[in-house]
Amino acid sequence: QQQVRQSPQSLTVWEGETAILNCSYEDSTFNYFPWYQQFPGEGPALLISIRSVSDKKEDGRFTIFFNKREKKLSLHITDSQPGDSATYFCAASAMGYKLTFGTGTSLLVDP
Amino acid sequence: ETAVFQTPNYHVTQVGNEVSFNCKQTLGHDTMYWYKQDSKKLLKIMFSYNNKQLIVNETVPRRFSPQSSDKAHLNLRIKSVEPEDSAVYLCASTSQDTQYFGPGTRLLVL
Question: Is A99 on the interface with B (CB under 8 A)?
């Protein structure tokens, strides 16, 4: 059973547009939600993260919106660039326990 | 700057052979992991080691075994590979909540 789900599976946007990647989870004990970015031939790398006490986290062009009641979060990438083309993983953990990774969203930014 | 190193980058072998992958981290972390990433890019945790103690084993087949000489090294051995073992194997180390991944070893079983 997949505890962390992501949608869409793949997404294509034009350069300059805002890409919206969605994530939902089931375990109400999850309180830490990092997003990882993976380029082809590389391992995933931490992009941005949020804890359940917050509903928004910004880092440059990347923003996480978190809805604890609905157990949903989203990653917004504003002014998307071709270099943002990658696979994005939403993950979740509870109290520092092991991370549970989502199914991933493959993002393509067309120039 | 890479801090989790994996070798080899790529390995091709035949069914039934034994393979071993190496992982080293220079971050001083106490916990390391092995993940399997399939062709759909799904990440599945296989093992984690904390101070040489196996603390998580996600019911992987017995032909897989982790091997650690110290907290900076966590190798993965596959005793008799099968076609479904073709995947990318990712090693990671962790500091609190953040995991740092290596570049992965791509295994192709013919």
Answer: yes
Kindly report, residue by residue over B65-110, the tens digit of the pLDDT.
999 888 899 999 999 999 999 999 999 999 878 899 999 999 999 9
CATH code at position B23: 2.60.40.10
B79 vs B58: CA distance, rounded Å:
17
What distance, in Å, lies between the first and last C-alpha atoms of chain B?
A: 34
Assigned CATH class of A4-34+43-110: mainly beta
Domain count within chain B: 1
Contacts with A58 (C-beta within 8 Å, 6 or more apart), sequence order = A64
Among B41, B88, B90, pick the best mutation site for testing chain A contact (most A Cβ within 10 A). Answer: B41
Provide the shortest C-alpha distance from residue B42 to chain A (in Å).
6
- Tell me which residue in B33, B48, B96 faces A96 most closely, judged by beta carbons: B96
